[in-house]
Amino acid sequence: MCVRRSVVGLTFCTCYLASYLTNKYVLSVLKFTYPTLFQGWQTLIGGLLLHVSWKLGWVEINSSSRSHVLAWLPASVLFVGIIYAGSRALSRLAIPVFLTLHNVAEVIICGYQKCFRKEKTSPAKICSTLFLLAAAGCLPFNDSQFDPDGYFWAIIHLFCVGDLFSVLDFPFLYFYRFHGSCCASGFLGFFLMFSTVKLKNLLAPGQCAAWIFFAKIITAGLSILLFDAILTSAATGCLLLGALGEALLVFSERKSS
After folding, report:
1. Distance between CA 161 and CA 103 in Å, rounded?
2. 8 Å CB contact between 134 and 241
3. Neighbour-count burial for 209-226, b at 16+ CB within 10 Å, e otherwise
4. Is 181 helix (H, G, I), strand (E, B) or coil?
């Protein structure tokens, strides 16, 4: 079982890394910035691969009534917002900056759980949300490659992510957002979604959070070497503060699980 968990975790990290680097290359280097086409392409590839997986017995798809489908419509709108805003932001921002801003969605989720579900929040989790907010809030003032449009779309993206995961129930096909515009990106997006579902089904929340954190760290680190990213000492401090916040979030998840 331990070997299986490690394989699933490493597969997820590989898909996460490959997906983000491929999408960043297409969006920034090749300058293909048409989010609507992204959505259509990713949905087509994802739908075809999901159908093949269902035929092969890899996934189980339960039929749903019309009322259930209607209940998914709000989440479907948020999913479109995640793709559109995320691709806009990723085309303009460095991957470490994008991931740091994306982590603020965890703050939205934590706030919803605290205020509406009345769930207990550990001190470590509260500290992590404060660090994540501080890191994201300080970045615009210290980013030497500051792009107003990039930050605007990143804010829209993180609110869509936070609302989707905190408020709405959504079928697992749309469990994870897709970014991309080419064939490789379409396949990587599907396998990233598939490996994410496997990871969350097989591992405890704390272990799952640790693998996601590890994937973000290696993705952010490698992206600095592959793409033009000018990080000042102050911006680097913001990124490290965000990493510390997410590390505390992982710690709180492992402690509560």
Report:
1. 10
2. yes
3. bbbbbbbbbebbeebbee
4. coil
Within the chain, residue ranges assigned H as helices are: 2-24, 35-55, 66-92, 95-102, 104-115, 123-142, 148-166, 183-202, 205-226, 233-256
Q: Each residue of 178-187: b (16+ CB within 10 Å) or e?
A: bbbbbeebbb
Give me 230's structure tokens: 């000018």
**Contact yes or no for 109/159 (Cβ under 8 A):** no
The C-alpha angle 208, 1, 195, rounded to 5 degrees, equals 40
Reply yes or no on whether the pLDDT at 197 is more than 70. Answer: yes
Query: In the chain, where are the structural domains located?
Result: 2-61+69-256
Q: Both ends of the chain: CA-CA distance in Å?
A: 18
> What percentage of the chain has pLDDT greater than the value 90?
14
Cα–Cα dist 117/139, whole Å: 31
* AA identity, residue 144: S
Q: Is the pLDDT of residue 165 over 70?
A: no
Residue 47 CA: distances (Å) to CA of 44, 159, 188, 197: 5, 25, 13, 16
pLDDT digits (tens, 9 = 90+) for 203-226: 888 888 889 899 999 999 998 888
The Cα-based distances of 247 to 24, 98, 137, 203, 209 in angstroms read 25, 17, 18, 18, 9
pTM of this prediction? 0.77
Q: How far apart are CA 181 and CA 38, in angstroms?
A: 5
Q: DSSP letters along 145-161, please?
A: T--HHHHHHHHHHHHHH
